[in-house]
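quick one, 208 residues, struct below
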Amino acid sequence: MAIINFDFTKGEPTRFGGEPWPEGAYCPLRGEEHGAGHLVLWHTHAGLCLYDFERNGYDDSDFYMIVWNPEKGAPEDICFASTRGWSYPAYDSRPDATPDVLAAYEAWKVRQAEQRELDRRHAKATALREQHAAELAVCGLHGITLASLRRWKRTEHQDQWERAFKLLSSTRLRSKFRISLRDRAVAWLKDATPAYPSPYSRRQWEYI
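---
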């Protein structure tokens, strides 16, 4: 079984809008005695349905089928039923992927995982290059060595280091107090044998 589609007709040879009924459409329920339309069903995506899932909303739920698209070589999701309206016949839709489709889907997942790993590595490399360039810029701005800057980076907590580096990177400080904090760090970085493990006291870190 695949995705079950449905519509209604009062015996017209075509659907609303003049479109012909899909091949294989059939009418399991006739409604002449009630003056209602005839229920028409037909199946689509046979052999391509991988799995179904439900997406719950605040008031209603929508039911989706993950279907393999052979033209795109990738899966796509199709909403086949919903509690937003009458769609009971479609609830009997079931996954029916063939072994070839399942194999293609598994191969696609492998390629996606490989691409995510490549993207992760690329993003990490880009971030490292940008950080290196920013550190070199700070060193050139204050006349300090990259080695001393990175030594400080290794000894501070991540949050403290990020705040201190932002202070060192700023070229638009207006507060005399913050300028003095920045100059204190620069002097500490230029000292080959600093007396303290950090340029700031615990109290001073609160203002950085």
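The beta strands are 3-9, 26-29, 38-44, 49-56, 61-69, 74-82.
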